[in-house]
Design goal:
Number of helices: 24
Low-confidence stretches: 290-299
Strand content: 15-25%
Shape: globular
Largest sheet: 7 strands, parallel
Number of strands: 23
Helix content: 25-40%
Strand order of the largest sheet: 12-13-11-14-15-10-16
Length: 594
């Protein structure tokens, strides 16, 4: 109990955090590893303790005692006994069940006889039991290791997987000390730590898990560091071809591997090498039965059915991979989840800026790829200069009378589209482009609706990249943007992730995917790489006021609020600042006039 504490812990596992309390930031950072942000109005933010958040915390080394001490040190009032019980119960469950190997046998064991017998008799667990060795140990089906982990997590008893990994084909690989361009290269302390925590000196305690770090912090470099630790044949999965080719450039630039060692497996190139970089889309491609639907997206398809109809499944099953890296792991499509249930004997590294999934499949990431092993608050990396300082703004615009009537008469889904494509967004975008017109400014405009983007692209004479833009043309435009010959670039949702545009310092979001928190984080990440001049990154989200879009915007901002970013809300009366200099605007903010 601490009368100056910034949090109030409630018996329903929710935590109220007082934003105006002097200890707010310390409290927020203390509880972040084991909570999830639920809502963030002006003065009181609400966090929630969940079973999954506690298990992820346990996997990083936090104990129930650590969690309770953090709550007690920051809480204004005593911790409710029910919360103490829940935290101790669920955190202590992690590791009560363990998987290990004995020759070719997969064993599940526990030190708690009663619990073990109870778990093994569960209807969903019984099919995995081959035979009982004792009251605390049983032989399990080794071919269904991933399925078993999913079932146990769902039952509320996550198993600690110590069964180890197969040895992949060896691959000598070292990190360079200078890049191909002659620049000095060395791992940052947190990158080295993240790779070592994942690898765990090659023991069974390492080898599967997720590293959570902001865009621009060098997650790809952590992947390279992990490859240098494992020294084995590696399969890297990415969201798109641009991301795949970025990985290939980074590998060749910063390691001793050459283009003869690193191959692309995509819709355009199908080569396999000691390191193969493939897209999620190519792995979910099905054998053609018609000209329609070439990708598997159904939720109810089984693994056996997937094997039969997935064209490129042999890429998973016929190579002796020693390491798999899942880039942007939060984007994993359902079929790749299912294939990953079969890859439990291969080391699996997930990389992401946020584990948030709007479909609620965080449990599948936890079970099949691995628990969260390492993360750092975004603001900490910002304070150390590893990512740019970010200025987040939400600009609320009204609907004209005609649009307001159209909105009032529309269905819910139509309301979202009408608000998202409000024509007045074009005027605000133009004002922002006029405002950020210095030679060093690079502005990305990103949106969800293709017609809206195409119209604005013509109006503002700015090149547009969509999913239909040929990869050759995409690479050309990205290169021109990097070089500075192109100051402004417009992208559809293909720009949400994995494009390396280090000099982008302004991002204008004109529409998004409903209330997607991970999309908001990914988009801010496009401008977070440190600037050569040490400048600030500017993020503007243009939202239609008093609409469904405004409601979604509040949810979209949750993850970034959890990381310590505050959105400045601008309405019509504030728009005149867009014609002022940055210095004048900063002064207005300090005076509380914006």
């Amino acid at each position: 109990m601490n009368l100056s504490g910034a949090i109030i812990v409630q018996s329903n596992l929710e935590i109220m955090v007082e934003v105006d309390n002097p200890n707010y930031e310390a409290a927020r950072d203390a509880i972040a590893p084991f909570t999830e942000l639920v809502k963030s109005p002006e003065h009181l933010h609400t966090y929630r303790i969940s079973h999954l958040s506690l298990w992820n915390a346990a996997a990083t080394g936090l104990t129930a005692k650590d969690v309770l001490e953090r709550l007690e040190s920051q809480s204004k009032y005593p911790i409710p006994p029910t919360v103490v019980t829940e935290v101790e119960d669920y955190m202590n469950r992690y590791g009560l069940l363990r998987l290990r190997k004995d020759g070719d046998k997969l064993l599940m064991e526990s030190d708690d006889k009663t619990l073990f017998v109870e778990i093994c008799r569960l209807k969903d667990v019984e099919p995995f039991v081959v035979e009982f060795v004792s009251d605390t140990c049983a032989v399990m089906d080794p071919e269904r290791r991933g399925h078993l982990k999913m079932v146990l997590t769902t039952a509320g008893f996550p198993v600690e997987d110590l069964a180890g990994y197969t040895v992949g084909d060896p691959l000598p690989i070292q990190l360079r000390t200078t890049t191909l361009a002659g620049k000095e290269f060395k791992l940052r302390d947190y990158q080295k730590e993240a790779a070592q925590v994942f690898y765990a000196s090659g023991s069974e305690k390492g080898g599967s898990g997720v590293i959570v770090l902001p865009c621009g912090s060098g997650k790809t470099v952590i992947g390279l560091a992990t490859m240098s630790l494992t020294q084995t044949k590696t399969l890297i999965l990415t969201p798109n071809i641009s991301a795949s080719r970025q990985w290939i450039r980074e590998i060749v630039d910063k390691t001793t591997l050459t283009l003869d060692d690193v191959k692309e497996y995509s819709g355009e190139v199908k080569e396999i090498g000691p390191v193969t970089v493939a897209t999620y889309q190519i792995l979910t491609q099905r054998k053609r039965t018609s000209k329609k639907e070439t990708e598997v997206e159904e939720e109810n398809i089984s693994e056996e059915e997937a094997k039969k109809i997935l064209t490129n499944f042999p890429l998973f099953s016929e190579q002796k991979w020693g390491l798999m890296i899942y880039d942007e792991v939060h984007l994993l499509p359902a079929p790749v989840f299912r294939l990953s249930t079969e890859m439990q004997a291969t080391r699996r590294l997930g990389l992401t800026a946020t584990l948030v999934r709007e479909d609620g499949k965080e449990t599948e990431v936890f079970s099949l790829i691995g628990p969260k092993k390492f993360d750092i608050p975004w603001r900490v990396l910002e304070s150390q200069g590893w990512i740019a300082t970010a200025d987040c703004n939400e600009i609320r615009i009204p609907m004209n009378p005609e649009l307001k009537m159209k909105y009032a008469l529309a269905s819910t889904r139509e309301k979202i589209t009408i608000a998202s494509t409000n024509p007045e967004k074009g005027d605000i975008t133009k004002r922002l482009l006029d405002y950020f017109n210095k030679p060093e400014d690079r502005t990305l405009i990103i949106g969800q609706y293709i017609e809206q983007l195409e119209s604005l692209s013509k109006e503002l004479n700015i090149p547009l990249i969509t999913g239909k833009t040929p990869n050759k043309e995409r690479e050309k435009l990205y290169a021109e943007f990097r070089s500075g010959s192109l100051k402004n670039l417009m992208v559809s949702k293909v720009g949400n992730f994995a494009i390396d545009l280090p000099d982008a310092n302004v991002l204008i979001q004109i529409s998004g995917t409903f209330g997607s928190r991970q999309e908001e984080a990914q988009r801010l990440g496009r401008v977070l790489r440190p600037k050569a001049d040490g400048g600030t990154a500017h993020f503007y989200s243009i939202v239609t006021q008093d609409s469904k879009e405004q409601e979604f915007a509040m949810n979209r901002q949750l993850f970034l609020t959890e990381q310590g970013y505050a959105y400045k809300i601008m309405k019509r009366g504030d728009w005149d600042v867009l014609s002022r200099t940055p210095e004048e605007m900063q002064a207005l903010m300090q005076e509380g006039k914006v």
